[in-house]
């Protein structure tokens, strides 16, 4: 089987899978569509399995295709690692796929990213946002190189490296928080709980806190953006359980207030990657840089 496999077919397979379309994959790769079709046909012949189902619009993976996907990512990543080793590059060069929570990106990455690009101008960093469960799945399946999550997933196939401690705090508009602290949660039973939705670990924890108080009937309001959540809270439309670092500026300015009587929930944001994986030179460089950046930040705060 191996003698009939090549990197081009694997890259084409991954691109078709991600784009869910032969024509979009051809456009992204700079091929004519017949070349994409040929690559997939050759790979299917080699593996003896159909990899895609044709849909009215686009394609989706077959069961065999889903089994092949993590190996295809590993195949290409091993090739990249081998190329790095053979070329003996003094400066890391190549693509690094990083995924993190949007609420982590907003307060931290504007300061972090310029330092990476300044030190490693040849690294192409592909940053995407997602929720903890999604990030764990993507890293486990080799679809991304590095992830930043708010809690140790405690998975045997993943390495977790602590970066920064944080805490979840209940926050809202000053008038709403004052009312709640004077009269209790029951006084604001018609208030919405604002967050990223049920896929978000913060929202899951908020629901658990309210359930423990016997207040499971709060209405949820969901947004994809940290900024939208904060703006909605500032208009007095609800409360949210948010990382302290993501609302620090609004708390300092008085635009939002923290519910002081509520216990905080400790978080420890950390970097994850596949355990035992031979990281490519650019991925290793980014990993070490991110760790060093937050270590230096911690030393400045405690020094």
Automatic annotation (TrEMBL):
The keyword Zinc-finger belongs to this UniProt entry's keyword annotation: no
SUPFAM superfamilies per the UniProt record, alphabetical: Periplasmic binding protein-like II, Winged helix' DNA-binding domain
Source organism, top-level taxon: Bacteria
InterPro entries (UniProt xref): LysR_HTH_N (IPR000847), LysR_subst-bd (IPR005119), WH-like_DNA-bd_sf (IPR036388), WH_DNA-bd_sf (IPR036390)
Keywords: DNA-binding, Transcription, Transcription regulation
This protein's record includes keyword Disulfide bond: no
Domain HTH lysR-type: 5-62
Family (UniProt): Belongs to the LysR transcriptional regulatory family.
Protein name: LysR family transcriptional regulator
Organism whose genome encodes this protein: Paenibacillus phytorum
